[in-house]
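re: ur question from earlier - yeah i can do the single chain one, its not a big deal. heres the input i used so u can compare w yours
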Amino acid sequence: MINCLVKNWMTSPAVTVTPDTTILAARDVMSEQKLKILLIAEKDQLLGVVTQRGLIRIDFSVLGEEVRNESVALSEIKIDSIMTRNPRITQPDSSIPKAARVMLENRIAALPVVEDERLIGILSSSDLMRFIIYACPLLEKEILVDQYMSDEIISVNPKTTLLEAHRITGTKRIRTLPVLEDDRLVGILTRTDLVCSDPSRLASKEHQDLLLKFLVRPVEKVMKKNLITISPDAPIAEAARLMLENVVHSLLVVDEDQKLVGVLTESDLFLMIVQKFF
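and the output i got, formated as C-alpha cells:
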C-alpha cells in the first residue's frame, strides 16, 4: 500500500519567523532557504503566512499612512503588517491527495501542518514532488508527461514588452510563458520573473514615468535562457525530479526535434495526484 499521509511527507520542523521580523530579514530567510511560503509563528502558534510573490509585490499603500512615504525603510517594517492571517492548513493524518486538491483549488504552493492548534510542519510543493517520485513507480500503469501537460501553448517573442507579458499572464491566468523566435524555443518567462523585475510595488506614485519606461522593455531582458525541458513520453516521476532538483514550478515539453509541444506545471502534477491516488 502506498503511504499517502501528510505526516510522512511534510517537512518538520518548518522554517518560521516571528511577527516582529522585518520584511528585509524575511526576504533573506526565504532566499537562503529557497522557500515559496514563509510561516509566521510564535510559541508553536501559527499566526500567518507570507508568499515569495507577496514579499516582492509589496505595495506601501496597504501598510497604512504612516509607512506610505518611501523614506520609511523596509528594514523598519514588520512582517506581521503584510502577512495573510488565518491561512489554509492541513492536518498530519490528512491524505496527500486531499492536501494536493486544496493546493490546486486555491493556487497555493504549501500548507502549514497543524495538530491540536500547534504548528508541527509544512507540506510544500517540493514535498509533493518527493511523493510523486516515490509513489508513481508503484502504480500498475506508468504515467507519462503527455497525459497531464497542456498542449495549448501561449507564447511570446523576445521583443514582446514586459507590459504585454504582464497582461497575458494576468488575463490567461498562467504562470509560464515560453519565448519563441521563428518557432524556435529561446527562453522562458515566469510570473515570478515578471514580478521580481517590476519596480512598481516599491516605487511611489511620482515614479510612473520610470515605471512606464521599464515596462516597455522587451522580455528578452529578463527571460531565462537556461532551459529545463522534458520529453512528452518521459515518466511523470522524472518531471517531478527535475522540478525538485532545479527548484522550478514548470517544465517545457519538447519533442525529439526540440520543438515545443507543451508545458507541464506543478498544478498539473497536483491534479495527477488527486486523480491517481484518491
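The radius of gyration is 20 Å. not sure if urs matches, ping me
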